[in-house]
Structure formats: structure tokens, C-alpha cells
Amino acid sequence: MIRLCRDEEIEEGDARGFRFGEGSDQTRVLVLRWEGALKAYLNVCPHVGTPLDWVPDKFFHPDDRHLICATHGALFLPENGLCVAGPCEGEALQAVEIAVEKGWIVYRG
Ligand code: FES
Asked: Which of 43, 50, 83 to mutate to test the pocket of ligand 1 (most atoms within 8 A of CB)?
């Protein structure tokens, strides 16, 4: 179990990125709150595997309805990670398990 941040630090329609581990064991995760629910995905684009954010914690498209990959512009639905436009359309971000424990968002893998 890895503590990511306090629950209240991620507001509705907001997302944050986290990295932990070293080298090839490093894990990149993005956590967002959408329609009241926390969602978490690996921060790995299904197209060629780059992180989605071009600036730390900038995951949302300006329309505030999609996540966007900075590398080639693929658009993803926040609620399930499905790619709905771009080179990996029809693929999806890999969901990961998180929980809120004593006010902390924790990563469970
Ligand atoms: S790496 Fe994300 S769209 Fe190409």
C-alpha cells in the first residue's frame, strides 16, 4: 500500500499524477475525481506508452470532458479510460486499484 495524497487534495474534475519506484520498476499513476468518484489509471498511453501529461498534473483537455495524451492528442473518457479519438481509439487506459483510508488515497495496484 502506498499513500498518494489526502482525499480532499483532488477536487471534482481535477487530476494528479504520481510516480513511485525506481528505473524499470517505476510506476506512474494518475488519479482523478469524476462525477464524485475517484478513478485511477496507469499514466501510460496505450498508443506508445508515454505519460499523458506534458506538464505535471495537466491531464484534462480544455473541454474539461476528456483526458488528453500530450504526445499525439488521443482523447480518453475520464469515467473508464476508453480512448474515443486518436491513434489508439478503442483501447483504454489501464485501471488500477485505489482506496481511501483514514482520509488518504492509497494505491493498491
Ligand atoms: S502516445 Fe498517446 S496518443 Fe500517441
From this structure: 50
Rounded (10°) CA dihedral 37, 47, 27, 109: 50
Q: Write the pLDDT tens digit of every residue in 16-61.
A: 999 999 988 899 999 999 999 999 999 999 999 999 998 999 999 9
Going from N- to C-terminal start, the domains of the chain cover: 2-107
User: Which atom of ligand 1 is nearest the CA belonging to 74?
Assistant: 3
Which residue's alpha carbon is nearest to atom 4 within ligand 1?
Answer: 72
Q: pTM for this one?
A: 0.95
61-65 LR contacts (CB < 8 Å, sep 24+): 64/13
Cell of 56: 505535471
CATH code for the structural domain at 2-107: 2.102.10.10
Helix (H) or strand (E) holding 104: strand 104-107
